[in-house]
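[Meeting: bench + compute handoff]

Bench side (C.D.) handed over the final construct sequence. Compute side (W.E.) agreed to return the predicted structure before the next meeting so the bench team could plan truncations. Sequence as handed over:
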Amino acid sequence: MSFNLSELNERIQVESSFLSDIKNEMAKVIVGQEKMIDSLIIGLLCNGHILLEGVPGLAKSLTVHTLSKVIKASFRRIQFTPDLLPADLIGTLIYNQKTGSFETKKGPIFSNIILADEINRSPAKVQSALLEAMQERQVSIGEETHFLDDPFLVLATQNPIEQEGTYPLPEAQVDRFMLKVVISYPNKTEELEIIKRMAKTSIKPEVAAIVTPEKLKNAKSVVNDVYIDEKIHKYIIDLVFATREPGNYKLADIKDLIDTGASPRASIYMAMAGKAHAFMQGRGYVTPEDIRAIIYDVLRHRILLTFEAEAEEVTTIDIIKRIINTVEVP
């Protein structure tokens, strides 16, 4: 095992070297927001979709667009509005009078990176069309099924304010997102740098396309090979089951605060994200610290709270903290 692990570590050193290049290139445009960038990279490495939540002006769209430029990927931004139709997203059949037949006109979903801006502003039919693309990585137009490109990543933004005229995402759809990343304001030093860099009418900084889809594919292959011990698997299961059966983990006092615990997707994504996090640290094996580093983004949108929790102003973050501090670490 030691020889294999040593060999794996060497492969990781080679295959993960481009990650620092991505961050350095994105730093030409994006100030701070390391957490958001790391989460986007985890999504790329795991083929996982990400829900970004933050107030307007925190560079969510700019970060996603910049990432697509850095990895030589096609990018489309779709502004979700109440009058958006499924055909606006996936495409439709157009009648060709010359040939007397219908032709497929593909929609913007046929890109590598999709920025679904303010996803909760569109009705259920549009969300369900996006859901098929996210889950099956294919769309149906007429009687034909069209497969989407690889990589295919949906990065959806959600505005926590101005909830008028929004359609809350169904729990089933929210569960499809690998991570939910909550983005905070920059600190004073970062905001000062933002002003210096962006408060100009001249041309803004540009980035170079330095990562090919092939390089990304090789990295994904190595991430799959990252070693995760049986003890870590059991640790993940204990963390997830503590959201469902808190009484069995000395957490009886939070039982009445949780309406629904995390689904099996939480276990799957926690293991995958843990591997990706270890890969990003240049390590060939997963540690409990890797799991603790990604657990908030994996679980925050999968734990539904009761009215009692809302009345007591208890958040999912509070619940996750209690679970982390109580469940035994291997």
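W.E. noted at the follow-up: The mean pLDDT is 85. C.D. will use this when planning the next construct.
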